[in-house]
Design the sequence.
């Protein structure tokens, strides 16, 4: 209660006026209703995303817990799951080994796991992050989403630094990729509420992804692929691709180039 009444006093009069004007979208109204919060005092929530208010976000048809230590999973990223599951089917990988780097809520790795369970395909999945609170939440989501969460490993690791030396068939990564100078231009609902460590990709937004690319040759299997989400201001030339790798770009559901698909050169 104290926090609620203190909040408006920390805001400028202009900001207060803007917040008082917040109008919920039909999606936000439905989301709040679904989680039992049909009536909400808009003057107390500022521009807080509704997912952080309810603590839930839907991704790939599944219900994920979210909190301020993780990014709210985005609709565009669902295609990473689809690409991974289709690749596993196409290549007839009988027991794929999968790494989800920068797992956050666990949405990518756990959605792939849920799809493979439905197909009776056994798997081994590593979910990793530098953030311990994020890993704790991913673990909680695993318990809720998978009836028997087996062959899941939660790893605190800067990229793949602390991974065991195994080869992965699928490497999934949605790492921070926003150029630092663009962070202040993000909507307040993002920059004031989502973790900066999930967003800031360094001066030109490629620092973290380039570092991962340099590690991939050691960790990818001969038939493996890495699917890496990128900023829409980037293209293939934005990245430093190690000699051993080849890469192509795939568009998201909004027809924006969004995913780097990386494999060993044949
Ligand atoms: C954009 S969020 C993506 C979260 C989730 N995978 C998703 O798609 O919603 C990026 C995540 O990468 C983590 N991260 C940032 N830098 C990292 C690094 N160097 N190594 C591992 N994880 C990192 C952040 O803590 C954050 O959880």
Sequence:
């Amino acid at each position: 209660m104290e926090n609620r009444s203190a909040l408006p006093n920390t805001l400028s009069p202009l900001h207060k006026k803007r917040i008082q004007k917040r109008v919920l979208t039909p999606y936000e109204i439905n989301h709040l209703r679904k989680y039992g919060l049909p009536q909400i005092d808009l003057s107390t929530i500022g521009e807080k995303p509704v997912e952080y208010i309810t603590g839930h976000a839907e991704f790939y048809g599944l219900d994920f817990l979210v909190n301020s230590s993780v990014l709210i999973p985005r609709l565009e990223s669902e295609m990473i799951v689809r690409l991974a599951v289709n690749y596993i089917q196409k290549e007839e990988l009988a027991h794929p080994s999968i790494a989800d780097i920068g797992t956050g809520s666990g949405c990518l790795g756990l959605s792939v796991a849920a799809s493979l369970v439905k197909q009776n395909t056994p798997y081994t999945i590593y979910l990793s992050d530098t953030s311990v609170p994020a890993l704790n939440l991913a673990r909680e989501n695993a318990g809720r989403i998978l009836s028997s969460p087996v062959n899941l490993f939660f790893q605190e690791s800067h990229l793949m630094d602390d991974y065991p030396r195994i080869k992965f068939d699928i490497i999934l990564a949605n790492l921070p990729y926003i150029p630092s100078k663009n962070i202040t231009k993000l909507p307040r609902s993002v920059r004031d509420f989502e973790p900066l460590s999930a967003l800031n990709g360094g001066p030109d937004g490629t620092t973290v992804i380039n570092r991962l690319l340099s590690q991939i040759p050691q960790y990818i299997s001969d038939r493996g692929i890495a699917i890496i989400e990128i900023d829409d201001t980037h293209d293939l030339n934005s990245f430093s691709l190690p000699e051993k790798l080849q890469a192509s770009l795939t568009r998201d559901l909004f027809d924006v180039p969004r995913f780097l698909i990386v494999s060993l050169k044949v």
In short: The domain at 75-264 is CATH 3.40.50.150 (Rossmann fold). The two ends are 61 Å apart (CA to CA).
